[in-house]
Amino acid sequence: MSKVIKNGTIVTADRQWKADVLIEGETIAEIGENLEGDEVIDATDAYVIPGGIDPHTHLEMPFMGTTAAETFESGTFAAAAGGTTMLVDFCLPGEDGLLAAIDDWDRKSRDQICTDISYHMAITGWSEKIFDEMETVVKERGINTFKHFMAYKGALMVEDDEMFASFRRCAELGALPLVHAENGDVVAALQEKYIAEGITGPEGHAYSRPPEVEGEAANRAIMIADAAGTPLYIVHVSCEQAHEAIRRARQKGMRVYGEPLIQHLTLDESEYFDKDWQYAARRVMSPPFRSKTHQDGLWAGLASGSLQVVATDHAAFSDEQKRMGVGDFTRIPNGTGGLEERMAMLWTKGVETGRLTPEEFVAVTSTNIAKILNIYPMKGGINVGGHADVVVWDPSIHRTVSVTNQKSIIDYNVFEGMELKAAPRYTLSRGEIIWAHGQNSQPRPGRGKFVKRPAFASAHQALSKWKALNTPRKIERDPMNIPAGV
Ligand code: URP
Ligand code: ZN
Ligand code: ZN
Ligand code: ZN
C-alpha cells in the first residue's frame, strides 16, 4: 500500500517547493509532480515538513527522590500529536553500569513507544568498567552520545578530571559528549545561603542558579572538549553568558553546538515570583527561566546559526511531586514539559513573528539535530530513500493550550492559555499515520522503534583529522645541539 501526500508545499532546511511525496512502506520513494498512490493524504494549504526530532527528554526518569511521571507511552503520544516523530531520552546508569541501564530503559520503553526513540547515555562517575562499557555502548548498542552533568552535586555531577577522561574516550570512539553546564559547587553554596536567609520558595531556585554559573561551566566544558579533541554539545542553553561562550568557540573553529529549549525561548523568570507557590514550582527547572534580554539573544542565535537545535528537556512531574519541595526549594523536582507544544510554540513565536523562516524552523526542529546525531538523511529531511517521518503542518489550525485536551498525563501545562498558530494535520512515522487532526485516535503503543546511531559523524572525522595534524610532537634534535645536563 503506497501513500501520496498531495498539493502541499515541501519545506526543508534549505528550500520550499510545491511537490507531491510518494511513500512506499516505511520510506519516501519519490518526490515530484502528479504522483499517484493507493491512498491520498491531502496537504492543500499546508506545509510538508520533516517530522520533528526532540533530542532531550526524561521519560520515567528516577530523579531527586521520585520518578518523572510522564511515561514512554504518554510522552511519545504527546510528541506525535505535536508533530515530533523521534525523541532521544537520557539513560541514567545505576550501580550495575551502563549496559544494565540500557536494558532497563529498553524494558521501560519497548512496549510503550509510538514514535521512534534513541538514548543518550549519562556518565555520572568514572571507572575502568565505565571506560570499557562505553565502547560496547557505541559499537553494539548504537548510542553515540554521552551526557555529563556539571550540576546536581552529590547526585549526578561529575568532576573536571572525570569529564576530561570521558571526553577523551568519546574522542577515541567517535562519540559526542553532551553537558549540562552549571557550576554545581557554586549552585550548592548559593542554595545553602538562600535557605539560611529564609528564601525557601521557588524564587530561591532562580536566585541560586544565576547566568554566570551557567556561563562559567559552558566555558569550562568547551576548554575541556578542546583539550580532549572532541566536538561538544551543550544542552539547555538558557542565557547570554553560555551563548557567548559557544559563539566565541565557534568563531575560533571549535565544533560546539548549543541547544536552547522552547521553554527558555518563551517563558521568563517572572514566573518564579508568582504569589501562587504551586504555579511557580511547576516552572522549576534547571537552568531556570531567564529575562527577556537573554531570550532575545537565544532567538538571534537560532537565526544566525550560533545555536542549532530547539529541544524540550521534557521532565514532567505532577503537582504532588512538586510539593516535595514545600518549605525547601532544593527539593522541588526539577523539570518542565513541552513535548506536544515544542513545534507549534516555535512556529507561533518564531515563524509567525518573522524571527525565523520556515526553513530555519525545519533546521532547528529536525535537520540540524539529525546531522549532529549522525542519522541524516535517514531522519531529519524529506529525502528519497529516507524514513517517511513527515508532518503535514497546517498554520490554519489554531488551538489554545489547555490541560484539559493535552496528551501529557501531567496535571498542568506551563504554556496553559497560550494560543498556538499551527498544528499537524497529519503526523506520519515511517509511513504510518500516527496522528490525524480531529480524529483523536491514539497510535499503537509499541510500534515505535529504537534507532541505532553510528559513531564518527562527519564533524567528528574532520576534527580528528585536524587534531592529528596539529598534535604536539617531539622535536628531534642533533645531540650536538643539546647541552650536557648538570
Ligand atoms: O530541570 C531539569 N532540566 N530537569 C531535567 C534534568 C536535567 O537537568 O536535564
Ligand atoms: Zn540538565
Ligand atoms: Zn535534561
Ligand atoms: Zn488564532
TrEMBL record:
> What SUPFAM superfamilies does UniProt report for this protein, alphabetically?
Composite domain of metallo-dependent hydrolases, Metallo-dependent hydrolases
Please report which protein family the annotation says this sequence is part of.
Belongs to the metallo-dependent hydrolases superfamily. Hydantoinase/dihydropyrimidinase family.
CDD domains, alphabetically? D-HYD (cd01314)
Q: Which organism is it from?
A: Jannaschia seosinensis
Q: Which GO terms describe its biological process?
A: nucleobase-containing small molecule metabolic process; pyrimidine-containing compound metabolic process
Name the reaction it catalyses: 5,6-dihydrouracil + H2O = 3-(carbamoylamino)propanoate + H(+)
Q: Where is the signal peptide?
A: none
Record's subunit section: Homotetramer.
Cofactors? Zn(2+)
Superkingdom of this protein's organism: Bacteria
| GO CC annotations, alphabetized | cytosol
Give a Pfam family name. Amidohydro_1
The Swiss-Prot or TrEMBL record annotates one GO molecular function as: dihydropyrimidinase activity
Give the free-text PTM comment from the record.
Carbamylation allows a single lysine to coordinate two divalent metal cations.
Provide this UniProt record's keywords sorted from A to Z.
Answer: Hydrolase, Metal-binding, Zinc
Function according to Swiss-Prot or TrEMBL: Catalyzes the hydrolysis of dihydropyrimidines and of the structurally related DL-5-mono-substituted hydantoins, to produce N-carbamoyl-D-amino acids.
Q: Which PANTHER family match?
A: COLLAPSIN RESPONSE MEDIATOR PROTEIN, HYDRANTOINASE/DIHYDROPYRIMIDINASE FAMILY MEMBER
What protein name does the entry list? D-hydantoinase/dihydropyrimidinase
Q: Which residues carry this modification: N6-carboxylysine?
A: K147
Describe the location of the Amidohydrolase-related domain by residue ranges. 47-433
Q: What is its EC number?
A: 3.5.2.2
